[in-house]
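About this split. The held-out portion is used to measure sequence recovery: a designer receives only the structure tokens and must propose an amino acid at every position. Recovery is the fraction of positions where the proposal matches the reference. Here is one held-out target exactly as it appears in the evaluation file.
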């Protein structure tokens, strides 16, 4: 029975993570375009696939022999390996965070946002040299940076709690107190 429950939890976690993967990218994309418009943002594609494998994708360029793709586009247009690296891997960990504790207060929302920030730091350690101010505890972040974590958390909460009005209200309270 224990194994059955563990497998069910794993399935639910993967299911939530799958739903979160593209939705979180779309949320990021909305904010990125609001701030930077159509400015390209290139990321290296994992495992440096051959050019033939990339011919159906837009925004590809070679940099020192390594294939890069502009991620300033919808998630379904991004090479799957890159989409997984940027969104899929973190989404699994974000799903674990959301499923790790119930939401019963605005403080729970802030605790989840803090854990989301920890997941973000873990998956984005490559940015530490360029953005050291982002690699600090959630409580020390600027309101603007906290809002980014909260907005990603909102995607997960909406999927996990299916728009539960009580959770929505607690989120609004935490969000309002962050501004």
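Reference sequence for scoring:
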């Amino acid at each position: 029975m224990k194994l059955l429950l563990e497998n069910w939890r794993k399935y639910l976690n993967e299911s939530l993570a799958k739903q979160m993967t593209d939705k979180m990218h779309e949320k990021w994309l909305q904010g990125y375009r609001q701030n930077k418009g159509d400015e390209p943002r290139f990321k290296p594609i994992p495992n440096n696939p051959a050019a033939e494998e990339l011919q159906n994708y837009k925004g590809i360029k070679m940099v020192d022999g390594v294939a890069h793709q502009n991620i300033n586009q919808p998630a379904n247009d991004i090479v799957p390996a890159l989409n997984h690296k940027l969104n899929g891997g973190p989404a699994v960990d974000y799903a674990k965070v959301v499923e790790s504790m119930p939401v019963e207060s605005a403080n729970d929302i802030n605790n989840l946002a803090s854990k989301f920030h920890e997941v973000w730091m873990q998956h984005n350690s490559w940015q530490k040299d360029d953005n050291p101010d982002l690699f600090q505890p959630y409580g020390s972040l600027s309101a603007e940076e906290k809002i980014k974590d909260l907005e990603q958390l909102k995607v997960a909460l909406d999927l996990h709690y299916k728009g539960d009005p009580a959770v929505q209200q607690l989120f609004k309270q935490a969000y309002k107190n962050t501004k």
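Annotator remark: Residues 2-36 form the longest helix (35 residues).
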